[in-house]
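Human: You know discrete backbone vocabularies at least as well as I do. Show me how you would write down a chain together with its backbone fold. No explanation is needed for now; the record alone will do.

Assistant:
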Amino acid sequence: MKISSPRRRQFLAGTAAAIVAAVALTGCGPAATNPNAAETSSVAKDITIDAPSGPGSGYDQTARALEKALKGEKLSDKIEVRNTQGAGGTVALSQFVQKTGTKDLMIGGLSLVGATITNSAPNKLSDLTPVSRLIGEYEVIVVPAESPYKTLEEFLTALKTDAGANPIAIGNQGGIDHIWGGQLVQAAGVKPTDVNFVTFSGGGEALVALLGNKVAAGISGYGEFADQVDAGKLRILAVSSEKPIDIAPDAPTIADAGYPEAVLVNWRGIFAPPGVSDTDRKALSDVFAKLVETNTWKETLKTNGWSNEYQDSDAFKAELETQQTKTQETLTTLGLA
């Protein structure tokens, strides 16, 4: 059939329009967009996550939880977790700061902020590119069930009377337990260097000392003392939170005890090497923003007793600078900086 010129032009125009519509529907051609662009981004698809401590540590647990969740949600194809031990994480930091690009990521946290200060490390965590703050664990101060101190205020009053007579069990010197202990006693008007903080290499040793009445109190993450608290052998005087925490909803908070300035969370987050472009930083941050909204990640938090402390890259960077300054001040009052 021969088509006249006007009708031929209408026919060709209609055919072209149909082809364009078909291309748009099938997602082919240069004008198509991918609704799951964040998932198909090249960042975080083939990466190594460095845990700046040994297997089984908090950093290691976080890295391996991320590995499982990112793969499970198909936000990454291939992940390798690498452990680098030494000097509270500063050995890993000194190596990681030399890397470039987005193929290598590292877990960091508040305890590493403290380690860089107490070890006079040449690099700070803020030298890296903050991607996302992810999780947190709150500290608790506990006493044996038979302790004469029923409340935090009673214990702090005893410290004011004779700080050295009531030793407090903590983890490593200058670590998160020590940092919170210093902030707590200082908020109560007690000079931190007057307090007898006793360091233990592991939670088991601290528990033995507590249950044997070798120390008056103990400070650690809630998980270290949870079983003994549930068994009625230890009593929580306060949690280092502003609001009740899900895993110990009945425990008094440090804010309710009258010391809101001593609120502290032992956060952990993900970092990229220095010099990452703003585009790649944003793309990485978007991947983790997607992850924290998934049921897989929410279940991970519940299973591990972690709190959701998510911050995007920009908010995380600002918070990190604040924490760096405050931790420096605390460790100085403890005579460790």
User: Anything to note?
Assistant: Residues 1-40 have pLDDT under 50 and may be disordered. Residues 100 and 275 are 7 Å apart (CA to CA).
